[in-house]
Amino acid sequence: MTIESRLQQLIDALNVSVLEFARQLGERRGEKVYHILHGRLKPRYDTIEKILVAYPQVNADWLLRGEGLMFKQLDSPSAAITTEERLRNMEFLLFQLTERITLLQQTNDQLLAEITALKSR
């Protein structure tokens, strides 16, 4: 999953518009965020930093690398995670697992087809 798609998921999970999200980062208009979301720009370090400052509940590892949960855990002092955010985290993890299962099934099907083709030779 790309950082652009994670950013879109974050905006959706926060239930804010792209314009509101951009304004929280100190942008007057949402053009820069729109360009990032559509792959025309890559987010720079300062943009990532602004996101993490504006939304301290966001897990930096998830945003940067797609690792872990979207939002920080409760035991983190700077994270006040709500039940709704926890549910979103669980939905996201289920989505990731479903994607992985689908990919594994496709790989399995391809391998079975190759084995069958080799046996018939």
From TrEMBL:
This is XRE family transcriptional regulator. It comes from Spirosoma soli. Keywords: Coiled coil. Residues 94-121 form a coiled coil.
